[in-house]
Design a protein that fits this description.
heterotrimer; A alpha/beta; B mainly alpha; C alpha+beta; A: alpha/beta; Beta Polymerase, domain 2; four-stranded mixed β-sheet; two-stranded parallel sheet; 3 helices; B: mainly alpha; 12 helices
């Protein structure tokens, strides 16, 4: 639990990468909607973070689920079978950060050109 | 054929062509001005006095453009299609009586003649769609065929109703029967058929659909099919389609006037003449423009539903009613 | 209400073709491309292809100071720039614990709501244009012109506003603006009634929209669709009510919802929202307190404490979430922009399977997409 007024969300959960699907299923059963999936490059700690935002359509409750993976092997299971809306968000996170979502049906670039092999939001990216 | 007869024909051919050309040009201007007024803006004002030379400028611009035949298209059909739209409209005008005397050829089957030529329009648009080798054009062509077939039927049923009511296919005679005050017009002849106004609305709706005007402009549908069958046309190829659209509107409105609104007959019994014909025709043309800028486009299956489920049964009913009335009243 | 037309199930393979709608097509309003796999006029699969105007705002955010990123936010959804300004400014205020004077909050609400109306008016015109009615566009733009003039006088720009500052707004509003707001409310109310009789109740429009493009509550939830899309499915989800921010708590307004979930419901939601925004503007103008419009204690060089902060607002098209991550430096560590159109469009493929082309384009119009908002 965190202070909503100070941070903008109610519940902050850190999970292991293999538990994100379970977390998504739990939230799905409780009627939460997917807000966004995004990445974060913590280059100092040599880690990548994947952040899942959820909101509830009827209650004032915002949940943030975070997981961290090593930069050398950024792999997280996909939640697109639980939330089909995650499909695009994961594609975007993949192209921007190079985080691989295992089991994703179509992990091709969404916003970048289709032949893009770079990951612009990585902190070590040079144009 | 005597020389004077030949000369008369020649004059008339030139006259019709000028009429169609000027109408097309200035109806475009009228439409743009009218649309402007409907939309709280002035419309074209720059070229010539108050924009009166705008059609000339448009025409010159279109003439200067290259006629592009897309690669892989059927060049012969592609070039033929605009002519096929234009010519039938001009042909129809040959039998349309503008007044007692002003008519190219007063033939006994004038009514059939006009609708026979009107039917070629469909084929021409289909050809242009097919020949363009463009997916949007093909979709548009398919739409045009099903739409025009659907609307040809109630339209012709209405024409048969009118034919039974008037007893002649000669356009001249049809108008002559409507002489006198405006309640002698076919539109108000409730003794022939108490549903005459309904018949008129069916005819007007079908006329809009046949000329591919909004809200039935499925063929162009610019927000769905870019420009439909005309997508690939450039320069005057497109211009001819555009002119043909207006020529067809003129023919359609002229037929509406002849069949229902008493042609050149004055509404007050005296002073009949070409002026009344033109007045009535342009009033109908104005309504067509008005409708276009007021209503959104229909969805395609709603369009077909309207024809097959409402207009055809209704027009069949009026046909039967007219037949019964004739049998009962005249027997 | 007619059921949406669906392809009859057939086990034999049918011949399909691919129709490219866009990136330049009259119905896609910008550079969205739809790859439609069609069977005749029926759509088997509609795959949106985005990214044609991708500008990487999120990377730009990592390369400029907190304040320098502010103009970027007005260029994401250019039709509702105020709400985007608001979300970013408020997120930074939340991080740096900057208090905003009440007058500034009221001005923010008034300008955001004016901007919401102008955005909905553009949608109204453009949507009718998609449906083949050209005239409403010019009527809507006529009304919108007044809003733009008013906002121009206060903010200096007509479209991509950058009016809010950390701790308030950059200019105070004057009496002309207040009078303009009252005049505008008085003007738009009868106009909305006219739109109702002239456009909304037109049988052709109703036939085209009712029962078309059903989007269920469940689909909205799974795809994270928000704004008029989720309210058109009968869920009263509005960030202004559920996570009240700014001074929205103090106003009396309703969240219009329509349970039908079709294009007409989404249409009616937006039309009704304009009326509600008018109510908010009216109340806000009446209650507008005196005082400063910019907090005086804002440091020149902002270094919010480390951590991540979110702020969500109800933009014209739905929930807009800004997540900023600070590492206590002059420039953000990460700016994440969660835009409503992105999520709203992602359900397009599922919502339009088996639909006819014009219906699918009606659905596209009813989602009210602004392409830079998707591509960012």
């Amino acid at each position: 639990m965190v202070d909503y007024a100070g941070r903008g969300f109610h519940l902050n959960v850190c999970v292991w990468p293999d538990r994100v699907v379970a977390a998504a299923e739990l939230l799905d059963r409780n009627g939460f909607a997917l807000d966004a999936v995004t990445g974060m490059d913590w280059i100092a700690e040599n880690e990548m973070e994947v952040v899942y935002d959820y909101f509830h359509p009827a209650d004032s409750c915002r949940v943030v689920v975070r997981t961290r993976v090593p930069r050398s092997k950024p792999e997280v299971p996909t939640i697109s079978q639980v939330y089909p809306g995650a499909n695009w968000h994961e594609r975007e996170t993949h192209e921007f950060f190079g985080i691989v979502f295992l089991g994703h049906p179509n992990l091709t670039p969404l916003l970048l050109p289709e032949d893009a092999t770079y990951h612009p939001l990585r902190k070590d990216f040079v144009a | 054929m005597s020389l004077s007869e030949l000369l008369r024909m020649l004059v008339y051919v030139v006259g019709v062509m000028a009429f169609v050309g000027l109408n097309a040009a200035y109806l475009v201007l009228a439409e743009r001005k009218g649309a402007g007024r409907f939309q709280r803006r002035p419309g074209p004002t720059e070229v010539g006095y108050a924009g009166w030379l705008q059609p000339v400028a448009d025409g010159v611009k279109l003439l200067c453009k290259q006629l592009i035949v897309p690669p892989g298209a059927d060049a012969a059909l592609f070039r033929l299609a605009p002519l096929l739209v234009m010519i039938p409209a001009m042909m129809s005008l040959a039998v349309i009586p503008f007044s007692e005397t002003l008519v190219g050829r007063n033939i006994n089957v004038g009514l059939v003649f006009v609708f026979a030529f009107g039917a070629i329009n469909v084929m021409a648009v289909m050809l242009s769609g097919w020949a363009s080798r463009n997916k949007y054009a093909i979709i548009s062509a398919a739409r045009v065929v099903s739409q025009d077939v659907a609307y040809e039927i109630p339209m012709l049923l209405v024409v048969i109703t009118m034919l039974m009511a008037t007893g002649t296919m000669n356009l001249h005679e049809i108008v002559q029967q409507q002489a006198g005050w405006f309640w002698h017009w076919n539109l108000f002849r409730l003794d022939l058929n108490p549903l005459m106004p309904v018949t008129f609305i069916i005819f007007f709706t079908c006329m809009l659909a046949e000329t591919n005007r909004a809200p039935f402009d499925m063929a162009e549908a610019e927000s769905e099919l870019v420009a439909g069958a005309f997508t690939e046309y450039a320069g005057m190829g497109f211009g001819v389609f555009f002119m043909a659209e207006y020529a067809n509107i003129v023919v359609g409105c002229a037929m509406t006037t002849l069949l229902f609104l008493g042609g050149w007959q004055s509404p007050f019994g005296v002073g009949s003449g070409v002026i009344w014909f033109l007045l009535k025709m342009y009033a109908v043309v104005f309504t067509v423009i008005w409708v276009r800028w007021t209503f959104p486009r229909t969805q395609f299956y709603n369009l077909l539903n309207l024809s097959w489920k409402i207009l055809i049964p209704l027009s069949l009913f009026t046909l039967i009613l007219t037949a019964v009335m004739m049998k009962v009243l005249r027997a | 209400m007619s059921a949406p037309e669906v392809i009859p199930a057939s086990d034999k393979p049918c011949e399909t073709f691919v129709l490219n709608v866009g990136p330049q097509h009259p119905a896609t309003h910008g550079v969205l491309r739809l790859k439609l796999t069609m069977d005749g006029e029926y759509i088997m699969r509609a795959e949106p292809v985005c990214g044609y105007i991708h500008r990487m705002h999120e990377k730009m955010g990592e390369n400029r100071t907190w304040a320098q990123f502010l103009p970027n936010t007005g260029r994401i959804d250019y039709l509702a720039a105020m709400a985007y300004n608001h979300a970013y400014v408020a997120a930074v205020e939340r991080a740096a614990k900057i208090a905003v004077p009440p007058r500034a909050e009221y001005i923010r609400v008034i300008t955001t709501e004016l901007n919401r109306i102008s955005s909905h008016l553009v949608w109204f015109g453009a949507f009718l244009l998609d449906l083949g009615g050209f005239t409403p566009l010019l009527y809507a733009f006529d009304d919108r012109e007044q809003i733009l003039d008013m906002l121009e006088a206060v903010t200096g720009s007509r479209l991509t506003y950058c009016y809010y500052r950390f701790g308030g707004v950059c200019n105070d509003v004057d009496a002309d603006f207040i009078r303009g707001c009252r005049d505008f409310v008085a003007r738009l109310r009868p106009r909305l009634k006219m739109y109702r009789t002239l456009v909304t109740d037109n049988i052709i429009l109703r036939k085209r929209l009712e029962g078309i493009g059903f989007i269920s509550q469940e689909m909205c939830r799974k795809y994270g669709a928000t704004g008029p899309v989720i309210r058109g499915s009968g869920v009263a989800y509005d960030v202004r009510k559920i996570e009240p921010y700014s001074v929205y708590r103090e106003f009396d307004f309703d969240i219009p919802t329509f349970p039908e979930g079709d294009c007409m419901a989404r249409y009616l939601v937006r039309m009704e929202e304009m009326a509600q925004s008018l109510r908010i503007i009216e109340q806000a103008v009446d209650k507008l307190p005196d005082g400063p419009v910019l907090s005086s204690g804002v440091p020149r060089v902002l270094k919010p404490p480390a951590g991540d902060y979110c702020f969500a607002v109800e933009a014209a098209r739905g929930r807009f979430l800004v997540r900023i991550v600070s590492d206590n430096k002059e420039i953000p560590y990460r700016v994440r922009l969660r835009t409503p159109c992105f999520s709203n469009l992602s359900l397009f493929e599922e919502a339009t399977a088996g639909m006819m082309l014009p219906d699918a384009l009606a659905v596209l119009g009813s989602l009210d997409l602004v392409i830079p908002d998707i591509d960012r």
